[in-house]
Amino acid sequence: MTDTPLISSPEHSVEGFVREFLRELNFTQGTVLERASTNDTYLALARTVRHYLMARWMETTTAHYRRQPKAVAYLSAEFLLGRQLDNALLAADLEEIAAEALASLGLDLDVLRQAEVEPGLGNGGLGRLAACFIDSLATMSVPAIGYGIRYEYGIFRQTFVDGRQFEEPDHWLDNGSPWEFAHPEHEVTVSFGGHTEKYTEGEGEDAVERSRWVPGWQVLGVPYNYMVPGYRNGRVNTLRLWSARATHAFDLKIFNYGDYAEAVRAQTFAENITKVLYPEDSTPQGKELRLQQQYFFVACSLRDFIDQLLPEGFDLHRLHERICFQLNDTHPVIAVPELMRILVDDHGFAWDEAWEVTRRCFAYTCHTLLPEALEVWPVELLGRLLPRHLEIIYRINDEFLDEVRETFGDDELLVRRMSIIAEHPFRAVRMAHLATVAATKVNGVAELHSQLLRDKVLADFANLWPDKFTNVTNGVTPRRFVRLANPGLSALVTEAIGDGWVTDLDRLRELEPFADDPEFRRRFREVKSANKQRLVELLERRDGITVPTDTMLDVMVKRLHEYKRQTLKILHVISLYDRIVSGELDVDQVVPRTIVFGAKAAPGYVMAKEIIALINHVGTVVNAHPVASRVLHVAFPANYDVTVAETLVPAADLSEQISLAGKEASGTGNMKFALNGALTIGTDDGANVEIRQLVGDDHFFLFGLTEPEAAAIAETGYRPSAYYEENPTLRRALDLVAKGEFSGGDRSVFEPVVSNLLGEDRFMVLADFQSYLDAQDRVEAYYRDPEAWSRSAVLNVARSGFFSSDRSMRDYLDRIWHAEPLGD
Ligand code: 26W
């Protein structure tokens, strides 16, 4: 890299901004202000803001290259970024300048903000976590790069027709994407298929048996770079997402045969690899294209790091001194045999030498506890797509099982349990086992989750390597989820304790005394109520949904999954409705609530889709009922995404975190709500446990079975119908659904939901029903006292600083990566 001086940033002033903006509008967008569309002005604005970050980006990149510090590569199939404009404005400290500059041209920044289509390159928690982590790494000046996939279509757009979910493609790139930089000149070739050949290298004494991969077909990976700006620290890291293209040679060959249509087909075939994000969250479908995606991005990323980011001639025996590849769940785990292949086949390492390095380069984060979410790849498929990798996996497994036998003796049951290869119901590679064997560290994402990994899911491995296992509790970025999403609260907090909290969230502790200050509480309530007003306007504008303003805002937003128990929430609504309509509850005595749901279901997850329909139908009936609608309102805006969360979370009073204990690995929405001053009603699950410990029992509504209790019930045989028989309130609620109250009298519509609850009820909704209702009664009583409630809300804010993703990053740095921030 040369020492050419960098062009300096545009002038940091309103005039400077106006000049740069008009230049962009005229010279890049090719239009004039008078005729520019909203999209034209948005694109010009985005590029203007980008310019202010450009010099920092080049400086950061150059510093990494020159100093060659130990870096972190976060490998993730998902990065759920959310909109970029606001975050870039904030990082560059341009919010006021931009607003003023645009106003001077008769433009409204708020309108332009809304023109941005968010890149929905993730499903939910895991993808959003990756986005929070790279934000924190940049803000902490840690040398880090995110590697992932540039899906042409992100998570589907959800619509409702008659209350049922339909999916539409998400054309997020249609209007142009001003935040990405394509680098086709850095394309990487990725191979697939074919077969392997044995050959002997050297002669006589020195002869070694080696294996060579003869691939069947290849594609190109083109990197797209995205800026990851640190918060006002002069650093901008890189997120590199890969897009698949057909190789030039491939089309050319076919083209020469004169089959033009075939050449185009080949192109399409290659480009399919990064066409669409798989919308399955937690139940893998085992699709070939998904394995292609995983190998594709991981092969591109390793090649990129080794060939582009390390200096020429770097001795790969020392790779672990320069990088830790963090595996975000099992999706990138095929990187393990890929690195072995690179070292052994391409660089001539001996097997043991290569394993020594590989073992030290990877760390693995597990994000689930559900057995069905643990990825396995059929050996048949993996061997067909990646024959050399399968060979390598077999050898890793052989040596690993030798170690197991050496340590524990010939316990064949144990060996079978621990094997990387499962034999039943079909031969398959267990990716979590491969990851655990290869990783220096394995972590769960909340204390309880990490403990359950050690004690249950990966217990045999924890016995073998107790020191390998650790915990890093998840976090969320305070820049996006407090500072940007909640300007009112941010201003109030800053006025009280200064603005240091934005990068040092523990400082929120200094707010504690303000919880006892009536004036502060009054202003806190004012902020909450303004945030509710903003939400009401959003729902009206975006969805045409009208909801009342000043009611308790009770929110459950997350992917639709049975273990998360949206059914428990809707049964609560049904029960309130039933008791109001029957006169058991005096409507004038009920605290008015607005219940907001947001949830996408995996397109093939039938039960989840039924639950969505049930929620929508209950909402229709409740909202239309002359008496019930005086105090109850249900809203279910379609297509919940990061952008909606940014308005919804700051408005919430009550955060619903009601999974069956032992099933939610962590949750991160729970943290966002607490940080924005919502009180949680929740089970002892995931990070709820830590939230409750920190904010205190008096400021958290706990209910439900504990994990050991749920496990014990499951052990002795769970009988949901017993709860139905014994609890008249529950029975009435379920009977209403069964007899068609919410389906125009048609009993068949929600029969599958009801019979599932009465039959299997795998996640013990009925067992926790009464406890949940009792907790909701406590919520209601407490909410009647606004002073007490807002005191608790302020304490939730003050005591949740631990849930900053900056703290998560510090924990990863100390416990796993052993890397350091780059000094000035
Ligand atoms: C299709 C295969 C598959 C399997 C698992 C896709 C996605 C997954 C993820 C592990 C599901 C997921 O997003 N897990 C969530 O990760 C969050 C971040 O750590 C946690 O907060 C959530 O509790 C966990 O469900």
UniProtKB/TrEMBL annotation:
One cellular-component annotation, GO: cytoplasm
Keywords: Carbohydrate metabolism, Glycogen metabolism, Glycosyltransferase, Phosphoprotein, Pyridoxal phosphate, Transferase
InterPro entries per record: Glycg_phsphrylas (IPR011833), Glyco_trans_35 (IPR000811), Pyridoxal_P_attach_site (IPR035090)
E.C. no: 2.4.1.1
UniProt catalytic activity: [(1->4)-alpha-D-glucosyl](n) + phosphate = [(1->4)-alpha-D-glucosyl](n-1) + alpha-D-glucose 1-phosphate
Positions where N6-(pyridoxal phosphate)lysine occurs in the chain: K672
Gene3D superfamilies: Glycogen Phosphorylase B
Gene Ontology MF terms in the entry: glycogen phosphorylase activity; pyridoxal phosphate binding
GO aspect biological process, one term: glycogen catabolic process
UniProt cofactor(s): pyridoxal 5'-phosphate
UniProt-listed Pfam families: Phosphorylase
Top-level taxon: Bacteria
Family: Belongs to the glycogen phosphorylase family.
Job description of the protein: Allosteric enzyme that catalyzes the rate-limiting step in glycogen catabolism, the phosphorolytic cleavage of glycogen to produce glucose-1-phosphate, and plays a central role in maintaining cellular and organismal glucose homeostasis. Phosphorylase is an important allosteric enzyme in carbohydrate metabolism. Enzymes from different sources differ in their regulatory mechanisms and in their natural substrates. However, all known phosphorylases share catalytic and structural properties.
Name recorded for this polypeptide: Alpha-1,4 glucan phosphorylase
Source organism per UniProt: Isoptericola dokdonensis DS-3
